[in-house]
Amino acid sequence: MQKVTDNIFLLVLFAMLGTFILGASFIFFFIRYQRRITQQKEAMQKAELDHSEQLLHATLLSQEEERKRIGRDLHDDVGASLSNLKMIMAQTIAASPDSPAFKPMIDNIITTVRNISHSLSPPGLSLFGLESALHELFDNFNAAGKIKLDFENELGERLGNFDEQTALALYRVIQELLTNTVKHANANQVLITCFEENNSNIITYQDNGKGLDMAAGRKHGMGMQNIEARLRMIQSRYELPAVEKGFFIKIIIPAQKVD
Amino acid sequence: MFWKTFNSIVVPLFILVPIIIGAFRYKTLQSTFKILWFYLLITAIINTIATITGRVFHINNSPITHVYTAIEMTMLIWFFKNLLEIKRSGKWYLILQIVFVLACIANAVFFQSIYTYCSYTRSLESIICMLFSLNYFAKIASSEKSILKDTGFYFNAGIFLYFSGAFMLFIFSNFIVTNLTLRNFLVVWSIHGFLVLIMHIFISIGFLLCKK
């Protein structure tokens, strides 16, 4: 009788432990399975994100190439043709002084074509670097006389030594910011500063306009999306610290982006 | 002595841990988890009544287990209905609750006397709870977020571990009472105590992870 009792005890014990181990193992393998599924999903999402980012980069690069080509064609072909036309007109006017004064009109067209060509592809950027290209951009901006632009460069020559892709991206970002200020900000002052902070190069842009609607600006503004995409392309980022008045953006460029 | 202390003091008192944690975090609990908190509270009250009845008045407290089984299953069906977010087939859960209560009454009247352990209904309850738990695991299997951050997972895992471990004990419980020595009987019920502790630890973690 004793033997039978012992056996029942062991059987009950094993049965309880067995079903418990089955349950516990099920949960353990379930957690592992679910974790693997989550990791796979995350990896797929990351791959999709990387792919769309690569597409975006390729689009931006081909856009820049196209802009460069159109700018060059405008400058070299249309500009040269207009210069020839101007010379011919000068000879025609010298031969018959009564002919209409086409020269100022042709001069205007030449200036307009040059401006379009320069805005499509900043000529000094690849030759003289970002600093020179920015100075030219700011001079043109100040010449319009609507907004006063101040530029403080504490980075010195380093600003001119960014690699070409970084320089072009930063140039386009500042161009976009200036366009935004002119179009939407209702500002009369812009301050751009460049300096070093925590081993990174910093460019800050500030205007005294009506500022940015944070929710709408970050989520829907094409301009801000372009800025974000261009900065991501050069492994840089931006911050939008709160300011009392106007718009303020801080662009952080890693130190290694300098040639 | 150790097994006796463990079974009669440590395990019954440990239910206060999830109850206290749940009480402190009551405002952050979703309505589903509040059902579970009330279930623990009712369990604690019934356990106390059963202990007083058995130890102080030396009366067979098996009838309380019959009543407790019906209440426990009713509350757990209600909990799983909310946890599984069942809306369309809600009436089937109500039918299941009613049928189970009727089954408990029928069992007590026709099959297992109220003075013996209600092993049939306890075993049936275990099967139902395990099926509900597996259903919830299937539901969260394709979840986007990590299940370790899912509060429902901890409650469900606790219930699943308890019922899967205790299932065999419920089946053999009357057999154990009549055939095992007191020492072996205490050892078997201590394993049941460990399972209860595991369930209450999981439920406590779930309560701690609840956010508004």
Q: Could you characterize what this model shows?
A:
- The complex is a heterodimer of chains A (259) and B (212).
- By secondary structure, chain A is α+β, with helices and mostly antiparallel strands.
- Chain A has a domain at 126-259: Histidine kinase-like ATPase, C-terminal domain (Heat Shock Protein 90).
- Helix content of chain A is 67%, strand content 13%.
- Chain A contains seven helices and five strands.
- Chain A has a five-stranded mixed β-sheet with strand order 1-2-3-5-4.
- In chain A, helix 1 (2-95) runs antiparallel to helix 2, helix 4 packs parallel to helix 5 (164-185) and helix 5 packs antiparallel against helix 7 (222-233).
- The longest helix of chain A is centred in the N-terminal third of the chain and has 94 residues, at 2-95.
- The mean pLDDT of chain B is 91.
- Chain B has helices at 2-14, 16-24, 31-56, 62-83, 90-111, 119-140, 151-179, 182-209.
- Chain B is an all-alpha fold.
- Chain B has one domain (2-209).
- Chains A and B meet through helix 1 of A and helix 6, helix 7 and helix 8 of B.
Structural class of chain B: mainly alpha
**What is the number of domains of chain B?**
1
Number of strands of chain A: 5
Number of helices of chain B: 8
Strand order of the largest sheet of chain A: 1-2-3-5-4
Summarize the main sheet of chain A.
5 strands, mixed
Radius of gyration of chain A: 32 Å
Terminal Cα span of chain A: 91 Å
